[in-house]
Amino acid sequence: MHRTRLKAALTAAALAASGLVATATSATAADAELARNGGFEAGLTGWNCTAGSGAAVSSPVHGGVSALKATPAGSDNARCSQTVTVKPDSAYTLSGWVQGGYVYLGASGTGTTDVSTWTPSASTWQKLTTTFRTGPSTTSVTLYTHGWYGTPAYHADDISLVGPGGDPATVPAAPGSLRAGTPGTTSVPLTWNASSGATSYHVYRGGTRVTTVTGTSATVTGLTAATAYSFQVSAANEAGESAKSAAVSVTTATGGGDGGGAELPAHALVGYLHASFANGSGYTRMSDVPDSWDVINLAFGEPTTATSGDIRFSLCPVSECPNVESVAEFKAAIKAKQAAGKKVLISIGGANGQVQLASTAARDAFVTSVSKIIDEYGLDGLDIDFEGHSLSLNTGDTDFRNPTSPVIVNLISAVKTIKARYGSDFVLTMAPETFFVQLGYQFYGSGPWGGQDPRAGAYLPVIHALRDDLTLLHVQDYNSGPIMGLDNQYHSMGGADFHIAMTDMLLAGFPVAGDQSRVFPALRPEQVAIGLPASTQAGNGHTTPAEVNKALNCLTKGTDCGSYRTHGTWPALRGLMTWSINWDRFNQYEFSKNFDAYRWS
Questions:
Q1: 130: nearest Cα among 167, 155, 105
Q2: Residue 16 neighbours by CB under 8 Å, 6+ apart
């Protein structure tokens, strides 16, 4: 996790193979102008500009009486966009007139290679043109223009997309499988299946619309404790609104906070305790862990060999940790934490603990050995922290919903067996890196043409298969390269924007490898926590307390969001995870003190 940096990278060949080369094709008689209000004569109708950055102005203009003026900020590139309907496997020409410094024009969601063109300086109106071809199943693309962070305003006018028009939009079908997560005293989390062609969803309580979101999950708040409610959801697009889904009835909790799931607090703090090694931060005895921590993950249980499945755990040796307690003292301290309402788990893996359950024998050894550790120390559950080369997808394993790779299938089976053994109160958490989760939005396994890193997105089938058993997913938002978010922009670690974009993907769901027929469904907000390093020494991507609070404000309250637009607001977001308790102590408990002081409502 956490002792070394992630060293996974997609090959250049994989990146080249991820799209088709666009070819220029002149317009034909069947081609049409598809951009709506490309001259901004109707103001910003049809366009969405980030952070309120855009406005229609009367001067300067290229044609007509209006043009777009968009003003970037330090954390916003003034991106203005619209989504248009197109035909699959067809050629398109995108053009527009721009004025200003660093102006970009592009198209995303093409299903092949997304394209853009730009000018570093245009003192007068300059035409930008690019072409692309849609993928075999692409029915819509997003056109956009943007500037650059902190630069002066730019102007755009007469944006044009020429090519075959797509089929007219039709009213989407009603969403299916509406379901409720664990209700709190004043809130209920809801999720549902996506409806093809939908651009938004309306949530109803007792027949009254209470919220509208663009993703497939929402948390309804402002409810009364111990009260029965009925919810429905409808799908909508430019053609209209669908019928409402079948209703789901939920009774809010009687008290004790907004949250459930293995008796965790509504908002929990999760930390890793260096129990088997020191790692430069110093050894922290279990009895010295502050009460701030609600879930304590013992790092780490590691295999005897990478493929044995035989997991062992022991306390840090005295030679490395002179102040280590005895095993008896350690066990007594665990019981004291549990008596105070804390959960103590065994975390398996870490950066140095490669675990590959490539055989059924390894699977069975994993179940036996992990259960032995849980029983010996009287633990509350299991954390899966597989990194490096523990998980990868075999060639041809392309559907996260039906995995075939043995290391994936055997891990799912093993965890289900362990969970069944200990019952519904068993706590199951996972701590994958972004490479194995959010990168799956772009790349999954070796890809349809081969050549990609087979580990890309490899955690997705595990999370999906175990989502009904999963207590918490806390992806490591650190030691990560730039990752593309649902806005089709790359986001880099270290600030609120990264955590907002990465968490939004989990709470909204996303098409895996861009395939709209294979959408990874949203997780419930109470299943999600944000993973961060506790100090600059703990890992790359340290985030200051002020930026952590901005991320929480955006995701739970809809404020401080910056340039990224989330697909909902989730007051029931479970909380934060950090590597690690030891490094937080080394840093004067800055991370946990900030969490304790944060006001969730």
A1: 105
A2: none
Asked, as a colleague might, if the bond just before 300 is cis with ω within 30 of 0, I would say: yes
Supply the DSSP symbol for 56. E
Residue 416, helix vs strand vs coil = helix
From the CA atom positions of the chain, what is the Rg in Å?
25
Residues lower than pLDDT 70 in the chain? 1-30, 75, 255-262
203 DSSP β-pair partners: 211, 233
Q: The tokens of 389 are what?
A: 């080369």
CA neighbours closer than 13 Å in the CB half-sphere of residue 62: 22
Between β-strands 67-70 and 154-164, what pairing exists: parallel, antiparallel or unpaired? antiparallel
For 361, residues 6+ apart whose C-beta sits below 8 A from its C-beta are 309
Q: How far apart are CA 568 and CA 191, in angstroms?
A: 12
Task: Name the H helices within 257-345.
Answer: 327-339
Per-domain boundaries in the chain: 32-164, 179-251, 268-597
In angstroms, rounded to a whole number, what is the distance separating the alpha carbons of residues 340 and 286? 13
Q: CA 21, CA 15: separation in Å to the nearest integer?
A: 12
pLDDT, residue 14, reads 35
CATH number of 32-164: 2.60.120.260
The predicted pLDDT at position 238 comes to 72
Q: Which H or E run includes 532? A: strand 529-533
Annotated catalytic residues are 387
Torsion-angle region of 171 (φ positive above 0: left; ψ -120 to 50: alpha; else: beta): beta
Residue 475 CA: distances (Å) to CA of 193, 278, 418: 23, 23, 22
- Looking at residue 22, its pLDDT comes to 33
CA distance 187 to 209: 16
What pLDDT, on a 0 to 100 scale, did the predictor assign at position 346? 98
CA angle 386, 441, 175 (to 5 degrees): 110
Within 8 A by CB and 6+ apart from 98, the residues are 105, 119, 122, 125, 126, 127, 128, 145, 154, 155, 156, 157
Q: Which overall architecture, per CATH, does domain 179-251 show?
A: Sandwich (2.60)
Are the C-beta atoms of residues 181 and 526 closer than 8 Å to each other?
yes
Give the CATH fold of the 268-597 domain.
TIM Barrel (3.20.20)
Residue 498 host element (H or E): helix 496-508
pTM of this structure: 0.64
